[in-house]
Amino acid sequence: MLADIERVLISREEIAGRVAELARQITADHAGGEMTIVPVMTGAMIFCGDLIRQIPMAMKIGLLTVTSYPGAAVRSQGPQVLSGKEVDVRGRHVVVVDDVLDSGKTVGLVGPMLREAGAAEVKVCVLLRKDRPAARAVRVDYLGFDIPDEFVVGYGLDFNDYYRNLPEIVTLKKSVLNRAGAPS
User: CA-CA to 172 of 20 to 30 Å: which in 86, 136, 158, 180?
Assistant: First the structure.
């Protein structure tokens, strides 16, 4: 698996530092209240786990499983909600936590869905925003890193359901992206 890596884009130390900063921002913005965290699974699971452990306040968690990159796709195929743990968001302050913003379609799907469910406020926290016009056009309240418009894996992000367990954000060799199936 490590032989498949082209280069490390963001180190585990950089990620840890930025996640701590995001947690401080979210905590300050919601001081004295509660919130509901809604991570977009499965890509945001590691990011969200690290983030919420650093937010010292009462919170509920609701899960949404959304897919945009099925199987070995390296370009978004458009978001589709696969499942969700129903959480009552009526009157609550909600923070959607997502792994990567590339087209804005996931946020465009999930945000209105939560507002229609009665959320008092919906804020968006993304770990990565790709350098694309569509991504830059989406309002993000909490941003980890701006990255080049490249396919990345690690820290929860996958290629064909592999590489989520890498502790860094990395690019893969072209030869890996051109073959389907398991990593070497």
Answer: 136
pLDDT tens readout for residues 38-81: 998 888 999 999 999 999 999 999 888 766 555 555 555 555 55
Identify whether the C-beta of residue 90 lies closer than 8 Å to the C-beta of residue 37: no
Q: Active-site residue 88, yes or no?
A: no
Domains contained in the chain, CATH given: 2-67+84-159+167-173 (3.40.50.2020)
Find, among 170, 184, 165, 157, the residue nearest to 73 by Cα: 157
Asked whether 66 and 81 are in contact (CB, 8 A), the reply is yes
Active-site residue (options: 29, 102, 131, 149): 102
pTM: 0.87
